[in-house]
Amino acid sequence: MSYFEPDAKIFSSTQSTYLAEKIAEKYGVPLGKVSLAHYSDGEFQPSFEESIRGLRVFLVCSTFPNADNLMELLLMIDAAKRASARHITAVMPYFGWARQDRKDKPRVPIGAKLVAKLLESAGATRIMTMDLHADQIQGFFEKPVDHLFASTIFVPHVKAMNLENLTIASPDMGGSKRAYAYSKFLGSDVVICYKQRKEANKIDTMEVIGDVTGKNIVLVDDMIDTGGTLTKAADLMMERGAVSVRAICTHAILSGGAYEKIENSQLKELIVTDSIPLKQQSPKIRVVSCADLFAEVMHMVQNNNSISSKFLQ
Fold this sequence. Notes:
Layout: E1 8-12, H1 17-27, E2 34-38, E3 44-48, E4 56-60, H2 68-82, E5 87-92, H3 111-122, E6 126-130, E7 145-148, H4 151-161, E8 166-170, H5 176-186, E9 189-199, E10 202-209, E11 216-224, H6 228-239, E12 244-252, H7 258-264, E13 269-273, E14 285-288, H8 291-302
């Protein structure tokens, strides 16, 4: 008796199943079975309910808060290693703790570096992620990192809007490279916001560098957390004469009063990916799935094909 057994399987952490199911469907395999046993003290133990010996396994897990998501991924990697998986690829649409990519003051950790070491120590042989907060995080790994760009998803959507006098904007100086990359493919002008913070998630001052009068602005950023930066930038640009302001953010963290800020701001629309599930729906928020992108790149990795065609930046 002969039968076909795939040489790659896809599994998901608990909080990323909504996305992993779509990725597995696009990839063309059923989502693998994994169970999670819970102890009364809150400890948990994942278990693969099918053989993965000699296979490549893709473990889909966005490591957004709380820390249980990261811990579950680490345990799944360790379980896959001990079950003799041939390759273990940690598919992290959202790479959590990435904002801690350097020492910006004394006596603080470099959290992104620590997470990289934890993933490698657990047994990950490859990392696949999208729109890292800082490109240099790739250098924290000794294993291959496939750093995908959501611009391959967003640029066609912006083109389809057919906006007159389109101008791409960055909400801060750090995102200027991203803004220029988008403007290159869209053939648009660029403006930059300059902001100063005295503490995390609180903006002290903001100024716009460039002319926004009569322009349809599209702000681009890798993530939106409390929404303070984007909504303040949108309101400021409308005050300076912009016709409309939209925003494109890859990772919709949306913590604190973010939803309320977005609703009360002059943002016309916020477009995000499903790398993180929305906590609630909003008429101003539109979700574009990244499942197709990850499924395609996973096929390319499995077949040892180049993935450079998926890089717009």
